Every structure is written in C-alpha cells, then in structure tokens.
Amino acid sequence: MRRSSTMLVAGAVTALACGVVAAPAGAESAPPSRPGTQVPVYAGPLDGTTSLIADDTSGKAARTARITVTYHGFNATSKAAFQRAVDMWSTKISSPVPITVDATWAPLGSNILGSAGSNYIWKVGGVWQGDAIANKKAGRQLNSAPDIVARFSSSFTNWHFGTGPAPAGKYDFTSVVAHEIGHGLGFWGVGRVNGALGTVRYNGANGVYDRYTKLGSSTGSPLLWKMPDNSTKLGSALRSNNLYFDSPAVRNANGGKAARLYAPGTWRQGSSYSHLNESTYPKGNPNSLMTYAIGGGETIRTPGNITMAIFKTIGW
Asked: Which Gene3D superfamilies does this chain map to (predicted)?
C-alpha cells in the first residue's frame, strides 16, 4: 500500500503580496502543453573521499517561493532530508504561484539515485518551458496537476539522511533531492540523438534552455538551435564534448566564460546535454550540483553561481 502525506513549505511570496491574483483553472486559455520527461542522476564513484559545499545562506535568506511536496512511501527521516533541499530552493527562486512536487520513494534502475522533471511543458513565446516557470509567467496554475514529479531510489542501501556532511561511502540524500528539484525547475533541454541524427526540437519547438546552447565556448560559436534539425551535424555536436551554455548572466557568474555542458561521445539519454560537465565542475566544486552524477561522500547543498545564472537566463 502506498503511503502519502503532504508537507507545506511556507514562502515569503504569495500571489496577493506580489499584486498577482491567481485565476481559477480554466478561467483563461492556457498555452499548448505536452507531458514532460524525467532526468536522472547517477551514483558517482566511491573513492573514499568527502567534500562539503554548504549553502551559506541557510537559515538567513527569506523564502521567495512556496513549495509543497506530496510524499509517497517516505519515512520521517527521509522526509526531513528532502525538506532541507526544498527549503534551500525556496530561497533561490521567486514566484507568485505555489510550486507543487509529487515525490515517490520506490525502486529505480541500476545506479540511479533519483529522477525528476517538469510534469508538463508549455509552449510560451514559441519555446517549451516547464510547469513552474510557465505558471510564474502566467501568474496562475495552468493546470491542477503537480508541477514536478520526482522519484528516489528505495533500493539504494547507503544513503546519508543526516544534517551534516555525508561520510565516505555514503550518498547525501539532501544533495540528490536538490539536484532533482533543479531539473524539475527547468534545468533541461529537449536535445536528443537518434542514430546519427540530432535535434534540439520537440514537436517543432525548442526548449528555452536550447536557445542558449552552442558548439564551442566563444561568443561567436554556433548556436545549436540554428543548426539544421534532424541532421548529422547536430548529432555530432550533441556528442562533441564541446557544448556550452552561454548567456550574459552565465559569463558574469563564471569569470567571463560560458558554462561547459556534459556531452560525451556516446549519447546518454537523460544525462547528456541536460547537465554541467563533470570534469569541469568535479566533486568539491561549488558548481557541481547539476553534473550528471553525485559521488559517495559528496555533499553539495547549493546550486552554485553558474546554475543560478542559467536559471536567470531561462526565466527565473
């Protein structure tokens, strides 16, 4: 039997306080939508080392988003660890519309710690955006379904649920949840490779993230969305190990440089393209939260300046 409960994160910003009153569902026409997809995070190596990047604003910053989580199958200890990640994100983004998360504790695939994504994506301004950003822009919930759907591995045996850093050989649950909420909030692109052909379009449109990805790190490097769609050129680019997310906000946050993305020579569905590069932002780097894997003993409980700059670029 599946157990469920709901925990509310009190936010400092409400629709009324921001001068935006959420319209009842159906009161206005909604933009076109499609189901979203899940983005996983994998267990990195158990190398016997530990690292800690704490959130230096924890307990100090005002909460500027209201996030509610409906839990299925979690116990009190895992809920508390989950909640720490939610509390962190509620101070990093701002929205007049509550953000809803549906989280399930269940067996997942081999070496997968968790997965999450936008429950629906919405075509706003000609590009796909996830539920939470689309709702923010609309000033209301566009439908009654949860905004983020997340799953975490109940079959994994060496979780660390504590408030302190994870010891060597344990995987920090709060860090994994923080990573997956990041995907649910919009850290994803629609790029994919099928055989030799690549695309950064879904049903004819890019995701907002895809409008800022490019082959190469210079300001003049070609943007992926301007390459021929369903082409070998784009397929090669997506597997080039030379992809970057570039915007003025990212360069301001990253010492004048674009942010390197994970783009291995073999396409890894769900991992390639929608993560920062692991070798550029390794364990212990303050920007390592949104790489494709979280290692044993790795505690990273803040998004880092690069991820926050990407979020600013895509609409947060």
From this structure: Collagenase (Catalytic Domain)
